[in-house]
Design a protein that fits this description.
The structure is a homodimer. By secondary structure, chain A is an alpha/beta fold. The first copy, chain A, has three domains: about 1-170, Molybdenum Cofactor Biosythetic Enzyme, Chain A (3-Layer(aba) Sandwich), CATH 3.40.980; about 175-250, Alpha-Beta Plaits (2-Layer Sandwich), CATH 3.30.70.2860; about 255-435, Alpha-Beta Complex (Maf protein). Helix content of chain A is about 45%, strand content about 25%. A seven-stranded mixed sheet of chain A has the order 14-13-15-16-17-18-19, sandwiched between helices. A six-stranded mixed sheet of chain A has the order 2-1-3-8-7-6, with helices on both faces. Chain A has a four-stranded antiparallel sheet with strand order 10-11-9-12, sandwiched between helices. Chain A is elongated. Chains A and B meet through helix 2, strand 2, helix 8, strand 10 and helix 12 of A and helix 1, helix 2, strand 2, helix 5 and helix 12 of B. Strand 2 of chain A pairs antiparallel with strand 2 (about 35-40) of chain B.
Chain lengths: ~450, ~450
C-alpha cells in the first residue's frame, strides 16, 4: 500500500508552527509497512488543496490530510475531499450532538459555523474526537481511501491511534520493522567506507546511515510477513554490524550517550562528579536529563573563574599561573580534584576556549582539554573543534561521554588492557585510542 | 516573487526527524515578502526529487531545497538540480580546500566521497558552511533561482541568514523589514487579549504572535519603499506595544533571556553564581552560552546529592532533614550559600522534582522552588510545572532568568520600590509579582 500526506494550513506556510503531525503520521505509516513517497503542504486555499489531492490520488491508494476541519470559512478540507471524490456532504447527527455537548460542557456558546463541523462525505465514517469538536473522516471510494484528521496534534494523534491505525492494519500486507544503531567516534563518510559492502548489498533489511551532531545512526529496516520474521532479519544484520564495528556502537533506538553512561555506572555501582569550564554546565545538564541519574551523579561544578577552580577543585594557583587555565595540567587537576572532593569513583575535568573571543595563536578558539580520573585511571585528551560556541560545547560533551563510556566498557571487558594502557601516569589520548605520553 | 520549498530525505518520510527547516525557511520567506504556496517532501530518490523540482520550477521563481548534500551515494540533490537546470557539475576548489582543512582540524581522514561535496552546478555560487563540510549552492538559470541548503538545521540556518537572505532581499521589490519582540511571563492567549485592538487593526506593519517554550514572540513586519520608512513604521508600533506591555517585553530579535541577563549584569558591574539541583546544570549552560559570560558568571554548582548541598553551599543538615531537599528553605539556603561562598553579588538556588520518579502527594513531580539572593534581596518562588523532565528543567530556568531580569530592572529603575518589596525577609513570589510572606 502506498500513501501520501497532505498538510493543510496557511500557518504552516508562514512557518508559525512546525509540522509535527507529518512526522508522527510518517512514523506510523512506516510501522504499518505502508510506503510513503511524498508529503505536501498547502495553505487554506481551495484550488491548491484540490490540485494536491487530485495529484496524490493519481499516484497512491491512501491519502491522509491534516488540518482544515475547523468551523471557519477558511477550513475547507472536507468540502474539497467531497468534491474531488464526487460525494455529497451529509450531516452526521451523533457528531452534531457531540459538538453541542462539548460547548455546553465548556460553558461556551456554540455558533452556527460549528454545525458545519458535523458534515461528512456520504458513505464515510466519522471518527470521534474526544479532544475537540471536529470529527475526523475515513472514506473509501473504489479501491482508494481518504482520511481527514484535525490539525491540532493533541486531537490528531489520539484519533489516528484509536481509529485509523486499526483500520489500516487490516489493509496492509506484511510488516515493516526498524531498529537504529547509534555510533560515536566515527564520521559518516568513514563509516560508509568501513561498511561499504553491507551498504551496497542490502535490500532486505535495508541499511541507511544518518549523521547528526557528533554521532552517526545506522537504520536497519526489514519487511516480512510477521513481526518475528522482520525482527529476526534485523537481528541478523545487527549482529554482523556489531562484529564489524564493535565499540563504535554505543547504543540502539532511543539510547543517548548520557543514558548509556548512567546505565554503565549504575551496573557497576559507581559514582561520578564533573568539573566544567568551557562546557559551562552542559555535561551536567545532559547527565541529569537521564531519569534516575541521581543514583550515580553526585555533583557538578562549573568553575568559570580561576578562583572557583582553586577553591572548589584545589587546582594549584601556580599551575594555573604557569600553564594557563586552558591546559592539560589544569584539566587533569580539575578531574582529580572534583573526584577527590566529591569522593566519587570517577571525576571529569574540562577546560577550553569556546569562543568567539579568548583565543590566541597558541591556544585558538576550539582548543579543548578534557580529563578523566578514576580507579587507576588518569587520562587527558586534547581536541581542536570548529564551529560556534554552542557546537564546541556540544561536541566536547559528546567526546567526554564517549571517553567515559569506552573506559567503563574496556575496564569491564578487559581489565588487563586497561591497566596496561592507563597505568602510565598522565597519558594523552587522541584520535581513538592511540596513546602517547607527555611530561606534565 | 513566489517560492517553493523541497525537503529531501528518506529520514523525513520515515518520521525520524521533524522538518524544522521547512518552518524556519517559511518564516524567513514570509518576512522577505516572498509568497510560499507549496512545500514538498521527497525521499533520497532521484526520480521523485527530479519530478518535484520540475514541477516546482513550472510554478515559481525560487526553489529552496534542504538536505541531500552529504558525501554518500544517497545524497543527490546537487546532481539532480544540475541535471534539471542542464548545467554540468564543476569542482569548486575553495570548498574542496575547506573540506580538506575541516578534516585535518578534526584529526580525521577525508575520504574520496567527501570530494563530491565540493562539486557545484556551473555558474552557481558556493555558499560557505562554517558548521560542516557541505557548501550550499545559489544558482540562477534565466529568471529562476535554485538554492540548495544542507539538511542539519545548525548548518542550514546560519547559511540562510548569512548568504541567502541578503541575496533574496535584493530581488524583492520594495522592502520588508521585521522585528521581533520577545516576551516572558505571559501566555499567548492572555497576550492576544491584552493587545487585541492592535492585532485586529494592523495591516502595515502586520503583527503576529508566536508561542514557543516558556515565551511568546511578537513579529512586527512593515512593507515600504525604503529601509528607513519600514523601520520607522516598525518603530512606531513597537513604541505603542512597549507602552502597553512594559516589563513583559524582555528583548528583541536574537536576544535570549540569558543574553539580556548577562548584559544587565555587565552594565551594573555585578557578578553571579548559581546552585542547581533539579535543573542539573541547564541554567549554567544557558548563561555560559552567552559570549563573554565569563565577566559576570563566577561559578555554578550542581548539587544533586544532599552531601554536595551541605559541603559546597553550607546548607544546614538539620534544615534538609526537617524540611526535605525540595523545600523553599533549602532553595533559599542554596542561593545565599552559593552567593556567600563565591563572593558574588547575586546567587540563585534551585531545587525541585523533575520526575518521572521521586514525586509524592505533598511534593509532586513538577514542584520547583527557586531563590534569588542579592544585595538586600532574598526571594523564594514556588512553581508547579507540568510536562516531562526536559520541559520542567527548561521552564524552571526560564522563570529563574526572568525573575533575575525583573529584579535587576526594577532595582535599576526604582530602587525604592525594590527595597519596599524585597526588604521583607524571606518572601514568596507567585504569579507575577504578587508577594506574600511565609514564616520559614
Amino acid at each position: 500500500m502506498r500513501a501520501e500526506i497532505i498538510s493543510v494550513g496557511t500557518e504552516l506556510l508562514l512557518g508559525e508552527i512546525v509540522d509535527t503531525n507529518a512526522a508522527f503520521l510518517s512514523q506510523e505509516l512506516a510501522a504499518l509497512g505502508i510506503e510513503l513517497y511524498h508529503r505536501t503542504t498547502v495553505g487554506d486555499n481551495e484550488q491548491r488543496l484540490r490540485q494536491a489531492l487530485v495529484e496524490a490520488l493519481s499516484r497512491v491508494d491512501l491519502v491522509i490530510t491534516s488540518g482544515g476541519l475547523g468551523p471557519t470559512a477558511d477550513d475547507l478540507t472536507k468540502e474539497v475531499v467531497a468534491a474531488v471524490l464526487d460525494l455529497p456532504l451529509v450531516l452526521h447527527r451523533p457528531s452534531l450532538q457531540w459538538i453541542e455537548e462539548y460547548f455546553a460542557r465548556m460553558g461556551r456558546k456554540m455558533t452556527a459555523s460549528n454545525r458545519k463541523q458535523a458534515l461528512i462525505p456520504e458513505g464515510g465514517v466519522a471518527l470521534p474526537n474526544p479532544n475537540g469538536t471536529a470529527p475526523g473522516v475515513f472514506v473509501r471510494k473504489g479501491e482508494q481511501i481518504v482520511v481527514c484528521l484535525p490539525g491540532p496534534p493533541g486531537e490528531l494523534m489520539p484519533m489516528f491511534r484509536s481509529y485509523v491505525r486499526p483500520e489500516l492494519q487490516k489493509e496492509s500486507r506484511g510488516v515493516i520493522r526498524s531498529r537504529v544503531l547509534r555510533l560515536c567516534g566515527v564520521g559518516e563518510s568513514e563509516l560508509v567506507e568501513r561498511i561499504g559492502d553491507f551498504l551496497a548489498g542490502q535490500t532486505n533489511p535495508t541499511l541507511a546511515p544518518l549523521a547528526s551532531e557528533g554521532e552517526v545512526r545506522l537504520r536497519i529496516t526489514a519487511r516480512a510477513q510477521t513481526d518475528a520474521e522482520a525482527e529476526a532479519l534485523n537481528g541478523e544484520l545487527e549482529a554482523k554490524l556489531r562484529a564489524r564495528l564493535g565499540l563504535l556502537i554505543y547504543g540502539t533506538d532511543e539510547d543517548t550517550l548520557e543514558s548509556v553512561v548512567v546505565k554503565l555506572l549504575k551496573r557497576r555501582g559507581e559514582t561520578l562528579a564533573v568539573a566544567e569550564s568551557c562546557t559551562g554546565g552542559l555535561l551536567a545538564d545532559r547527565i541529569t536529563d537521564v531519569p534516575g541519574a541521581s543514583t550515580v551523579f553526585d555533583r557538578g561544578v562549573v568553575t568559570y573563574s580561576n578562583r572557583a577552580k582553586m577553591e572548589l577543585l584545589q587546582v594549584p594557583a601556580d599551575v594555573i599561573e604557569a600553564k594557563g587555565a586552558v591546559s592539560p595540567e589544569v584539566a587533569r587537576f580539575m578531574a582529580e580534584g572534583v573526584r577527590r572532593v566529591a569522593g566519587t569513583d570517577w571525576g571529569i575535568g574540562i577546560t577550553g576556549i569556546a569562543g568567539p573571543g579568548g583565543g590566541s595563536r597558541e591556544k585558538p578558539v576550539g582548543l579543548v582539554y578534557f580529563a578523566l580520573a578514576g580507579p587507576g585511571v588518569s587520562l587527558v585528551r586534547e581536541e581542536h573543534w570548529s564551529g560556534d560556541r554552542r557546537k564546541i560545547k556540544r561536541r566536547t560533551t559528546q567526546a567526554v561521554l564517549d571517553l567515559l563510556r569506552r573506559t567503563l566498557l574496556t575496564d569491564q571487558e578487559c581489565p588487563a588492557r586497561r591497566r596496561l594502557a592507563f597505568s602510565l601516569p598522565p597519558v594523552f589520548l587522541a584520535g581513538g585510542f592511540f596513546i602517547w605520553e607527555k611530561k606534565l
